[in-house]
């Protein structure tokens, strides 16, 4: 396997890791307003992700940086095409960040309500917009022979991209609900169970439709079809496990479902990195968009040294904060 192909796989792993880890953060960010019926319960939900949410966002930064360094042509075309959408993603991430930090700085009901809703909006917009952007890679955008995006904002709203955006948003909600069921107790846990049991059916339908559509618009082949089938099977398993209220296994099933969607997208995209709807001759390919051999070799050495460190640190942080979060006592502040 060439270095360019290796780094395409690495980029895919980064994006899978981002949605598996940050996906439940997004889900909790949206659901805390609705599953928590009072301030204490909302703070309980937020505290469940408080120690890990910012670390999980590192995967998005690393994923974007890996594309920039390993596939500069892909980065230039994709990010310039989605410039406005990217700005919206950054705004959504900023809204989430300040909501975590500022929500409990004052005790006023209006203050808390403002940052409750900014967290909800930011947490919902981010997976939706990123899903549309990822779907556009396979659905195709108007790209000319110079690898320049020739369309407008409306061209970014491809039907397939919109489906993937909605699918990832719903999966984040289910993933977040299973995380709350795993990490909280009391009323929040019971409501999270109830929501997940209902919403997982919608997730299953969306994933099945997405999988069929993905295989239809790609070149097909047994391994592409197999990759697309992972998520529907995992979603069906999640349906069964949620009915039995097996918290850990349900969370693992939703993790495989959302990770399988992102992984299958990249599997069906290969050997291209960005499809041109103008002409197949204008497609950006893994080999054509990659950096030189020397740059890829240096990146490989750095990744081999740093990636295990990042994984060990994140694994340690999850182990330290593995206990269930109880309802905060009166006067306590969220972390």
Task: Describe the secondary structure blueprint for this structure.
Layout (H helix, E strand, L loop, with lengths): L2 H33 L3 H11 L3 H4 L1 H13 L1 H10 L1 H20 L6 H31 L19 H25 L2 H32 L4 H22 L3 H23 L2 E3 L9 E2 H4 L3 H28 L15
Antiparallel strand pairs: 1-2
Helix pairs in contact: 1-2, 1-4, 1-7, 1-8, 1-11, 4-5, 6-7, 7-8, 7-11, 8-9, 8-11, 9-10, 9-11, 10-11
Under the CATH scheme, which architecture of the largest domain would be assigned?
Up-down Bundle
Strand arrangement across the biggest beta sheet: 1-2
Main beta-sheet annotation = 2 strands, antiparallel
Share in β-strands: under 5%
- Spatial shape: globular
Radius of gyration, in Å, reads 20 Å
Unreliable runs, pLDDT <50, ≥5 residues? Answer: 330-335
Would you write up a description of this structure?
By secondary structure, the protein is mainly alpha-helical. The protein has 2 domains: 12-290, Formate dehydrogenase/DMSO reductase domain (Formate dehydrogenase/DMSO reductase fold, Up-down Bundle); 292-322. Helices cover 76% and strands 1% of the residues. The chain contains 13 helices and 2 strands, in the order H-H-H-H-H-H-H-H-H-H-H-E-E-H-H. It has a two-stranded antiparallel ribbon. Helix 7 packs across helix 11 (247-269). It is globular and about 60 Å long.
């Amino acid at each position: 396997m060439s270095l360019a192909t290796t780094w395409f796989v690495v980029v895919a792993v980064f994006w899978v890791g981002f949605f598996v880890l940050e996906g439940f953060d997004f889900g909790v960010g949206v659901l805390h307003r609705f599953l928590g019926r009072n301030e204490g319960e909302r703070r309980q939900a937020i505290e469940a992700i408080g120690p890990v949410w910012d670390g999980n966002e590192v995967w998005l930064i690393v994923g974007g940086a890996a594309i920039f360094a390993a596939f500069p042509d892909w980065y230039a075309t994709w990010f310039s095409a989605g410039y406005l959408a990217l700005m919206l993603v950054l705004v959504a991430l900023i809204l989430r960040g300040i909501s975590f930090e500022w929500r409990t700085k004052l005790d006023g009901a209006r203050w808390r309500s403002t940052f409750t809703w900014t967290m909800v909006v930011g947490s919902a917009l981010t997976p939706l917009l990123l899903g549309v952007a990822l779907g556009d890679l396979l659905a195709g955008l108007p790209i000319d022979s110079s690898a320049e995006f020739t369309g407008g904002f409306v061209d970014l709203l491809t039907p397939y991209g919109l489906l993937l955006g909605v699918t990832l948003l719903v999966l984040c909600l289910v993933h977040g609900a299973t995380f709350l069921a795993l990490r909280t107790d009391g009323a929040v846990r019971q409501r999270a169970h109830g929501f997940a049991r209902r919403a997982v059916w919608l997730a299953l339908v969306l994933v099945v439709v997405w999988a069929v559509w993905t295989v239809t618009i790609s070149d097909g082949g047994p391994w592409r079809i197999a990759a697309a089938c992972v998520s529907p099977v995992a979603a069906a398993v999640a349906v069964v496990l949620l009915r039995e209220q097996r918290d850990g296994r349900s969370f693992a099933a939703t993790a495989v479902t959302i990770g399988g969607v992102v992984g299958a997208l990249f599997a069906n995209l290969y050997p291209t990195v960005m499809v041109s709807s103008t002409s197949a001759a204008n497609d950006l390919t893994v080999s054509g968009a990659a950096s030189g051999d020397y740059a890829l070799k240096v990146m490989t050495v750095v990744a081999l040294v740093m990636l295990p460190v990042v994984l060990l640190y994140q694994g340690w942080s999850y182990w330290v904060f593995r206990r269930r979060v109880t309802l905060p006592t009166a006067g306590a502040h969220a972390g």
